[in-house]
Amino acid sequence: MVSLTPAAHHGRPAVSSMQSMSLSSFRSNFGMRNVRPRRGLQALALAAVLLLHAGLASAAEAAKPAPIPVIVDNDFGTDIDDGFALSLVLASPRLKPLLVTTTYGDTQTRAQLIAQLLHDTGHADVPLAAGPAIGTREGEIGQAGWLRSPAPQVRSDGVDALLATLKRAPAGTVTLLALGPLTTVDAALKQDPQTFARLKQVILMGGSIHRGYGPQAGTNSDTPSAEYNIKLAPQALRDLLASGVKVEVQPLDSTEIALPAPLQARIFAAHTPYAAPLSALYTLWAERSPWGTTPTLFDVVPVARLLAPSVCKPVPLHITVDDDGMTRVGAGAPNATACLDVDKAGVLKLVEAALAPAAVPKQAQP
Question: How many domains does the chain have?
């Protein structure tokens, strides 16, 4: 509250003081001896407008939703979608990355690539740790050529870092975005299931319910496939589904979104810190990709789901996992939800807004 008289500080109504104050004494007390009454009233009106504007601005700031705390676990460096997904996380003020961990295979090199991305995009303060080096994958990290020498030093305690992050955060607030094979996630779950249960939810990219890989980017087959993330660590998904933690699955049914060439060109040409790294990583990926040179934004969909929940409508399912990585709908109480379709245009709009924002026109000079 703004008080107009000293009396207001001692509990007396300011309006009474104003009523007892003559216009001349008011002007004298407030340093307005040489201001005409009309101009004095104009000054008071302007002050009132400024105070109202400041109050409205403060109220609008307070009404903004708090950023969503997330942990991102991914297999950066193999397919190119991890680069787009992590860049979308970093470029989105609605998300607050508490930790990034790497999973499957050469997790150290994956983490070094991410460390360089974080440095180059102004996010070197985001905590990062490599997960356990479990498993191997042919053509594992084709984007390793992007690393400069000397490669950045990274922590290798990804499991401990994940659990420590959950212990520090209020229970039920952190979302884990699991964008690769679930080996690091599974190790954390097994090491300390009680702390792991502090998660709000896990949103993962993996599995295939009714539709599988299509013949080209952005298309689906009419039959399910053994999706790579689950095929490489099927027991890890079984463990997660049995953990009691809320799990949302983004399977091939909802994640086959091709990046249109015009949008890709705008992302690489945009005046953002992500343009040059993504362009360089894409070039290395495209040279070695057995899937063609059009990126499929699999891992972007879980991020988009957090940013704009309306991009898909998850349905409750009881999901079972075969040893070959096939995910099926079985009998029993739901143990997860899954999106079986997605608003592709909506996802691409989110990507465009964050990574290829329209240039702000310069104001005309007077």
Answer: 2
Own/partner pairs for 20-29, CB < 8 Å, 24+ apart?
none
For residue 51, how many C-alpha atoms fall within 13 Å in the half-sphere facing its CB?
Answer: 9
pLDDT digit string, tens, across residues 31-51 = 444 445 556 666 666 666 666
d(C-alpha 213, C-alpha 183), whole Å: 23
**Containing domain of residue 55, as a range?**
6-63
Q: Are residues 178 and 320 in the same domain?
A: yes
129-159: pLDDT as tens digits: 999 999 986 657 999 999 999 999 999 999 9
**3-state class (DSSP) for residue 226:** coil
122 and 184 inside one domain: yes
Q: Is 153 left (phi over 0), alpha (psi -120 to 50) or beta?
A: beta
Cβ atoms of residues 276 and 120 within 8 Å: yes
Burial class (CB in 10 A: 0-12, 13-18, 19+), 320: middle
The whole-model pTM stands at 0.82
